[in-house]
Design a protein that fits this description.
about 425 residues, alpha+beta, five-stranded mixed β-barrel, four-stranded antiparallel beta sheet
Length: about 425
């Protein structure tokens, strides 16, 4: 989703304001790459005279280039309409248009194919641009009118004709809606011809666009043109749980992508025995629980022992079924069970970066208090504790300096520290000796 017109003056992406209708390349809805555009036609063969023209959102039509104008991809062109004229952009020319018409079952000589009138002038383009700007306000106003009339319908989109003589209202509804009164009010208010066209939920999602659960743009708004019916059997064949919340798309219907791989699953299931068939053994009847289609494995269990699963290949299951048809019953499914060898691969760790230690960037701890305490503990047992509170309670604790052995280092006493917290003893004597 990026083109030259999707950026502002500073080069910052601002998003496509045309909702994919700018047709400048790679961001248009239902984009088709013309891989035959650079090839020359054989001598004497003329180019196919029908082109493919895209209008708003996903609406495309085949238009006959009867005047043999030189038209290129992305070029606007004035074409015939039911009344007046309309403007669209060329999306495909040449032989690919013939292939697309064969795919959709449209004959080249059909009367429904309209003609190209001319290339648009600047006045035509200005009028067309003004008509496109009025589409959203018209849609919002028509929704409010339908709500006032209490009509059970949802107007999802409005498309103006380029000459502003007609407007087509696309709506969705569950039941039939009598909108005759609505048409009268809309025609009187907007002063143009009104056409109401009912579309399905899938077509509505294709016109509005969006992001799917896969994270990509909706298939119906990018490349999908034909909507096939999707049933819950497609989910059952692919061993998917029937969960409406997971299987439903933006439109509320079953996802179209459920049909993409359905053929591959159906081809793989042709070799599988019927899941309804029960295996008869001497231990009892074994019932089918689940299958791995592409690995060719089936799981069975006994109703008496539902926690024990037996893993069998489809060929072994067929063998047991053939034995049951002959009236023979194997003792148990253990003899037929597939043995899965668990491969244990030892991975040798190689330190190629050199990250040996997780704490290699941590700061080294300072050598100090902790190591000294350990040394002190080794020599004298418990570390010395400072006396707190009343010095009389310091019985058998730190001895005064006079009672210590000679030759030892005298402690460095400061005033107000040691055994005399108040600093009143002159000769560093204990407080008890100074009292009379």
């Amino acid at each position: 989703m990026g083109c030259g017109s999707c950026s502002s003056g500073g080069g910052t992406p601002a998003g496509c304001g045309s909702n994919g209708s700018c047709v400048t390349g790679s961001c248009g809805k239902l984009e088709v790459f013309d891989w035959l555009s650079g090839m020359e036609l054989p001598n004497g063969q003329n180019q196919f005279d029908i082109i493919e023209v895209k209008f708003k959102n996903t609406r495309k039509e085949f238009i006959r280039n009867s005047k043999q104008l030189e038209l290129n991809y992305g070029e606007p062109v004035v074409v015939e309409a039911a009344s007046g004229y309309d403007i669209g952009t060329v999306t495909l020319t040449g032989e690919l248009v013939r292939i697309q018409m064969q795919k959709k079952g449209i004959k080249p000589d059909s009367r429904d194919v309209k003609n190209v009138i001319r290339k648009p002038s600047q006045a035509d383009l200005d009028k067309w641009t003004e008509a496109q700007k009025e589409e959203r306000p018209t849609m919002l106003r028509s929704r409010s009118i339908a709500k006032e009339l209490k009509l059970q319908m949802k107007i999802s989109d409005v498309e103006y004709q380029a000459d502003r003589s007609k407007a087509t209202f696309f709506y969705t509804a569950d039941d039939r809606v009598d909108f005759r009164e609505l048409i009268k009010i809309l025609a009187d208010q907007f002063k143009l011809r009104i056409e109401m066209r009912q579309i399905g939920a899938r077509q509505e999602a294709g016109r509005l666009g969006g992001i799917g659960s896969c994270g990509r743009e909706l298939c119906c708004s990018t490349w999908l043109t034909d909507f096939r019916s999707v049933s819950t059997n497609a989910a059952r064949y692919q061993q998917l749980s029937i969960n409406p919340m997971k299987l439903a798309g933006q439109c509320g219907k079953l996802k179209c992508c459920l049909n993409y791989e359905l053929d591959s699953y159906l081809d793989a299931l042709k070799d599988f025995p019927a899941t309804e068939t029960k295996l008869e053994t001497q231990k009892g009847l074994a019932e089918h629980q689940k299958s791995d289609i592409f690995k060719g494995i089936m799981w069975y269990n006994y109703p008496d022992d539902p926690g024990k699963f037996y893993c069998l290949t489809k060929d072994r299951v067929k063998e047991i079924i053939q034995l049951n048809k002959k009236g023979e019953k194997p003792a148990d499914l253990t003899d037929f069970e597939l043995v899965v060898e668990e491969k244990t691969s030892e991975v040798d760790y190689a330190n190629v970066v050199g990250q040996d230690s997780l704490t290699r960037f941590d700061k080294n701890k300072k050598r100090g208090g902790k190591n000294r305490r350990r040394k002190g503990n080794r020599k004298g047992g418990k570390p010395q504790q400072k006396a707190k509170g009343n010095p009389k309670q310091n019985k058998g604790g730190n001895k005064p300096p006079e009672n210590r052995k000679k030759g030892g280092k005298k402690p460095y006493n400061k005033k107000g520290r040691g055994n005399n917290p108040k600093g009143k003893s002159p000769n560093n004597k204990p407080n008890g000796e100074n009292k009379k």
